[in-house]
Amino acid sequence: MATLDVLQPRLRQLKLSGMLDAISARSEEARTTALDPLDFLLLLLDDELARRHTESIARRIHQARFEDHCDLRDFDFTYNPELPRARIWELASGRYLQDHASVFLCGPTGVGKTFVAQALGIAACQQGRRVLFAKTNALLTDLAGGRADGSWQQRFRRYVAPDLLVLDDFAMREYTVVQAEDLYELVSRRYQRSSLILTTNREPKDLYPLFPNPVIAEGLLDRLVNSAFVITMTGRSYRPRQRPNEPTFTLPKAKGVANNRDQPTGKLT
Questions:
Q1: pLDDT (tens digit, 0 to 9) for every residue of the chain, 269 residues total?
Q2: CB-based burial of residue 226 (10 Å sphere; 0-12 exposed, 13-18 middle, 19+ buried)?
Q3: Distances in whole angstroms, Cα of residue 158 to Cα of each of 155, 199, 227
Q4: Model's pTM, two decimal places?
Q5: For the CA atoms of the chain, what is the radius of gyration?
């Protein structure tokens, strides 16, 4: 009769870590419940599939380079009840990714745009999507470095490839001609092929003056706005809740704001 000592090296060699971790408990379960051999094998296969699924999600989240691990269930919607809670939860379902649509998260500083953008990005990772998070200025600086050393195409492909690109702090200041051209190329390449999430302190109509060339501005923003769900986030800033003299309040961040677990499923309009 085979023993665990005999099986475990073989499972390790086959890289079946899910089975390796579970086989002892599953074997005991099979003995005490007189489990059919095929049912026992099915349980071990499910353990292995579960491990691989969990690891693939963790790998996609790591590769996305988020600043924080954000979860919408930890976001305190009650602090700003006017936030479009149902629409944000609907976006978390990932339907916009299937349609290759984009998302504009607009609103003043401190209302949670970056948190929500990262939470939507992590939800996309959990749905099997490739995601990349970047500050807009950091992306433009990276592409400028590519122009300087001849690696622009290689760097550019890094931002075109993901199923979802999350650009934080979009349109913080006026863009140069080269920056505007880089953004236009990026949006054009991704248009109707993949999705973008952008956070901005401005309404879409206020973005046009930031681009030096009105033709580029029209082409870029027409593609963005016409393929985007515009979510306006208004209310009080969460940041004052960080003050040391107010220890009962915390800024919404990964694993921390409120234990708010209900998930409305309102439809996008």
A1: 677 788 888 888 888 888 888 888 888 888 899 889 899 889 989 999 999 999 999 999 999 999 999 999 999 999 999 999 999 999 999 999 999 999 999 999 999 999 999 999 999 999 999 999 999 999 999 999 999 999 999 999 999 999 999 999 999 999 999 999 999 999 999 999 999 999 999 998 899 999 999 999 999 999 988 879 999 999 999 877 666 665 444 455 554 433 343 443 333 33
A2: exposed
A3: 5, 20, 22
A4: 0.83
A5: 23
**CA 43, chain centre distance (Å):** 31
Question: Which residue, 101, 127, 106, is CA-closest to 117?
Answer: 106
Q: Please tell me the distance from the alpha carbon of residue 204 to that of residue 62, in angstroms, as a whole number.
A: 31
Q: Output the six-digit token pair for 219.
A: 């082409």
Looking at the chain, the domain(s) classified CATH 3.40.50.300 span 65-242
CATH number of 65-242: 3.40.50.300
Cα separation of 164 and 234, whole Å? 25
Residue in the structure block whose two tokens are 């379960």: 29
CA atoms of 135 and 215, how far apart (whole Å)? 25
